Each structure stands twice: as C-alpha cells, then as structure tokens.
Amino acid sequence: MIKTLCTAVLVTVCSMSASASAATSVPTPQPKTASAPAATAGEGCAVITAPPPESAPPTSVNTLRQAYFCVLDNYYSGPDMDSTALLKSAFAAYTRDLMRHGADRADLRLPALTGNRDTDWAAFAKVLGAGDPAALRAAITGMVAGLHDNHARWHRPAPPGEGGPTGTGIVGASAMQGPQLDPAARPPLFITRVLPGSPAAKADIRPGDIVVKVNGVPAFVGDTVNQGLLDAFASDKLRLTLKRPTTGRTRTVELREGPITRQPPAVTSKTLPGGVAYVQLPGFYEGAADQVIAKLRGEPEAVVLDLRGNGGGSPREVTRLLGAFAHGKITSYFCPLKGDCVPNRTDDSVPLLGLRLVVLTDRGCASACEDFSAAVKGNGLGTLIGTRTAGAVSGPAEGYLLDDGSVLLLPKVRHLGPAREIIDTIGVPVDHYAPMTALDLATGRDPGVAKALAVL
C-alpha cells in the first residue's frame, strides 16, 4: 500500500522545476521511444532531458561515484557540504545491506576521511572493490536519505519486461504526510482511497476502513503512529486487520500485489447547494490550471477547490491558476544557497474569474499544493479549511541521469512562502480545522465541504 503511494508521490513531489516558467519532472519511459544516452564511466551525472534508457548496465561503484559527485556539484548546499557525511551515510547503508543478506566482510571498514572530496572518494572506492550491486543501490539510497530533504530522491525505472504496474490498490491512508508517515497523526489509521478493480477492491476494502494491524504490527503504539508500517506495507504479501466503522466488525484480510490500473489525473467538478462550484484537483500536472479554469467559466460567485491528497507538480501551473484569482501578487520565492531569492508571481495573462475562493487541504497536500495554499493564505485570496498541509516543499528538483539508467532528483534552490516564510517541514495552517474521519469517509459525509458552505 504505502509503497504504491510513495511511488505516486515521488513523481509529483519531485516535479517542481527550478524556474516557475518551466516544469521539470522525471520523464516516463514510453514504448518505442529512442533511449536517452546514459552517463558513461568517467563522466559525471547529466541533466535528464529524455526518458531513461530501456536497458542499462547494473548499478556499479561508478554509479555510486556519479551520485556522490552529482550531489556535491548540483544539490542546493552541495558546494558547502561536508563530503565525508555523504560517504558515511553511503557506507552505513552499504554495510547494513550486506549484513541483512549475510554477506558482511571482515575487512570492510570505512577508511580515514580527510574532507577532500577527491582523495576521500579514491580511498572509499578502494575499500569497496568491485562492490555488491544490491548493496551499492542501498548505498545510493542511504546517501540521498542522509540529506534529509523531502524533494531529494533516487528513482530506478522498472526493468523492461515487467509488464504494467502492480500493487495492492490501496493508494491513500490517513496518516500519510506527503511521502512519509506523519508523526503528528492521531489514531485511528484508516484507508482513504482504493483503486477500482485492484486486489484491495476485490477484497472489499473500502475508504474509511480502520487499519488495526499490518502483518501483526499495530498501527499505533499508544498515540504514536508506528513508523515500522512503512516496511510492513512494502512487503509483497499483506495481512491486514481491518475494522469497518459503520458496523464495528473486525476482520483479517490477506492481500498480494496484482495488476492495477491508474487513470490519468483529471479535474472533476459538481455543483453544491446554493449553486457553489466544487472542483477537485488531484495534482498540478501540465494543463491542470486551464482545466480548473474551464470548469469555472459561467459559475456563480464562489468555488470550493479541493486540494486534499494533491501531491504537487509544476510551479507554472500554480502561478497560472493563482492568476485566475489575483494579479500582481508574489506567490513564493526560490532561493539559492548564495545570492538573492527570485520571486514567483501570479500569471497576469490569465483573466480574473472574480470568484470567492475556499481551498480544502490536508496532510496529503504537498509540494506545489503547499505553494498554492501558502500563496492563497499569504495574499488573502481565500479561506483554507481542513488540516495543515504536509510541510514537504523543500525546493524544486532537477533530474540527473546515472549510468545504470536511474535518476537522481536534487533540489537546486529552497522554497519560501510569499512573506519569505519557511513552509518546508512546517506546512500551511488552515483558517478552519475540519479533518476527515473514518466514519465520515465510510458514510459519505464531508466536514470540509460542510464548513466551506457555512463560511460562504
């Protein structure tokens, strides 16, 4: 469940470009498309401009070398970073993977590091020797995780011939905070979204079902969400203990991953009581702003824009959609490590709609979704209802291709809100608190919409 959700979040959260005028994301491999040249031995990482190659060499020590220098050369704070910290994180993850598979080596010790990035790498590579491919992949993952940056990721495309996407079909849970579990989440943990036709749907798992245990692991220890659930959900076979809030019935369901179908994201709309327009936007993907605007042509004076579960996307779509509600406003800032911050502004080429705006948010509203929410709140463009956003908006990420066909996503700048406030790790607070409960989902009630209608 969480593995599928995190993969979905990865593509959206990391797709903000370093410029508000052009979005950059990890290109999705397409059939019969010419492969992009992978970086070769002796070369550094290359900015990715086409789909990763359909076939590539296995992960090697050179791949780890590329990732190491790529971070130092291209990451936001890379030029001022302590290079020894990167190697320590990589080595710790490498040895943990070897131990996990019973392949630890008696002679494997971290060499003395001096802080010189080149000589330290040479000493490090000498200790690794040929390297174990699986452990090297773990080392890259550990090195990137050591940055503690929610927009830094290492992405490996699925090998050719694996067929379509697979998973359990559970793609939303109440304790999710962007791509991770929310330490502030309160019991219970419940399902928020299930893909139609998936193994979970066929097992009659529904939104609102409360997760009591996963593979025997309790969802909460006291009032604290169990972070071990991420590992439990990543297994190929799940044993879920679920409680249905409408009946109180508890049952155990065993799930295996199977084929799932993901529909392209789409804007949906309906008319609420009083003639208020309701528009649900699942992500700031290319063209999303114009789709929302098209839904609002000829509507009454107010709109409820539902951004709950919106994992983010392109900052260009953010500024374009904001341009339908205000002109001449600063929406956010992108700040380099050194030098002046660059302001992002509303797209004033978009005609104003003249609508009153209410935005629904939750802890699943991340990245570009938070960019939009902060701009609405900071510029007084509307009212925010729901719960505080994810706080996963460190900065827009650029994709870099490594020689094994994998992609390293690294932010080059930091995001600040319209008042130069930090949103990352904190989130955007709402004006009116209206969380969704398990019983609400199970019975079709929506406290966020109810509060929005009351405000309007």
TrEMBL record:
Keywords assigned by UniProt, alphabetized: Signal
Any one of the GO BP annotations: signal transduction
One Pfam family per UniProt: Peptidase_S41
Stored CDD domains: Peptidase_S41_TRI
InterPro entries associated with the record: ClpP/crotonase-like_dom_sf, PDZ, PDZ_6, PDZ_sf, Tail-specific_protease
Annotated signal sequence range: 1-22
GO annotation, cellular component aspect: outer membrane-bounded periplasmic space
Keyword Nucleus: no
Gene Ontology MF terms: endopeptidase activity; serine-type peptidase activity
Stored PROSITE patterns: PDZ
Coiled coil segments of this chain: none
Domain named PDZ: residues: 164-221
Designated name of the protein: PDZ domain-containing protein
Provenance organism: Streptosporangium minutum
